[in-house]
């Protein structure tokens, strides 16, 4: 049965019995229910780059700065800041009245401890920490950052919108090693996580933090006043896309973060549902991440065959991201349409051709070793992207072993530096990919992160990019970095596309974004 047929059949089914079973005495006056991309398995925002952890972090925690809808970094927890003439000394003052969910005030000591914990694990944060001479509290509300060398992206680092979120937590929790997850999840953000009402693998429940003090200005993406208009938000885990779509059409849920592409026509025809395509940094690039440490792709010549083989028109089309939902081809690691877009070094991938790739493979030392592709079956884009890449590589002459598993298993196995895996399909948003320093598959050069690529030429270029003071210098250096990336092949783009969101038509104030946020939303007439 196709998904569309399954949806049609599901319309006659009774209401979802699995929706959050909250005791009657604890039901809030107003609430929203959303189906997110995956279950939240890791909730500590400093310990995982997966997007559902990022989404969780932005509900529960707050950040010093935040990005608005135009890509500008604006103060969030910070009231004001000053810089020295040489831009090496930065002094920040927090807004008055900031409070953690446990009732304790937010202090500069909490901020300093949080940044010290976050920085070493984050792509952009590592570069900031490497350029830091000192980071210390001045008084209860102020702290000072002194740089040892120029770093042109201080505010970008402190206000980055995506993984790893520079979330601020109490000092006592921030003193826990980043390698150990915090089970106590206390932030100062607009929502309080209700662990007591949540069920692992089924629901996550968030209540409005009544002591939260939003900024005065209107909400603008992650910046501005985060005014929560409902008492409770419940995230539901509904793995079957047709079931989730049925729940949206019948009003049992209010929002779907990633509705299946093949169900979009049916959802669009429902007058009670809004389907909103997303653009700019909310767009996605599909990648296959390459294991450069072990197996057949430890040989860079074999990795380069991937660049010749993969046709970017196939993945989005198979996914259902057709028409204006995808680009026919994008040769920029930094996203097409982004400030750093470039085609530098991309000649090898510009005209994908099976025959050319097959001949190039014959010239390598590849002798039929299994190419193990980890396929996450619980998220559409990695599932379908992996299938398309597997079929293409078989045409080229690779021996392909496509192994189905859930995304959590992919995340666990990808950390193994051995031949148990060769590739995995993934997709990432422009919020992460638009800069070499935050790019998961380039900026992690010579670090213990999935893929294990290491090229000594990249490290000084990444440092130069971090120090660059103008957009012109950043564009030039980003082009040099991309040229090397096309040579060493840490990952291969399989397409750039838009993933729409879907929500009930009576919701007002929904901020259209690839990072779902639940402040500013209200029901019509309330």
Concise summary:
The chain has helices at residues 3-10, 51-60, 108-118, 123-130, 154-158, 171-174, 241-249, 264-268, 300-309, 314-319, 347-350, 354-362, 380-396, 407-413, 430-433, 458-467, 471-488, and strands at residues 31-35, 65-67, 73-75, 78-83, 89-94, 132-137, 142-147, 191-193, 203-208, 232-236, 255-256, 273-276, 284-290, 370-376, 399-405, 423-429, 491-497, 501-504, 507-508, 522-523. The chain is α+β, with helices and mostly antiparallel strands and 526 residues long. Helix 1 (3-10) packs across helix 7 (241-249) and helix 9 (300-309) runs antiparallel to helix 12 (354-362).
Explain this structure.
With 526 residues, the protein is α+β, with helices and mostly antiparallel strands. Helices cover 28% and strands 19% of the residues. The protein contains 17 helices and 20 strands. The chain has helices at residues 3-10, 51-60, 108-118, 123-130, 154-158, 171-174, 241-249, 264-268, 300-309, 314-319, 347-350, 354-362, 380-396, 407-413, 430-433, 458-467, 471-488, and strands at residues 31-35, 65-67, 73-75, 78-83, 89-94, 132-137, 142-147, 191-193, 203-208, 232-236, 255-256, 273-276, 284-290, 370-376, 399-405, 423-429, 491-497, 501-504, 507-508, 522-523. The strands form five sheets. A seven-stranded mixed sheet has the order 8-9-10-1-11-18-12. Strands 15-14-16-13-17 form a five-stranded mixed sheet. Strand 6 and strand 7 form a beta hairpin. Helix 1 (3-10) crosses helix 7, helix 9 (300-309) runs antiparallel to helix 12 and helix 16 (458-467) packs antiparallel against helix 17. The chain is globular. The two termini are 40 Å apart. Residues 1-21 have low confidence and may be disordered.
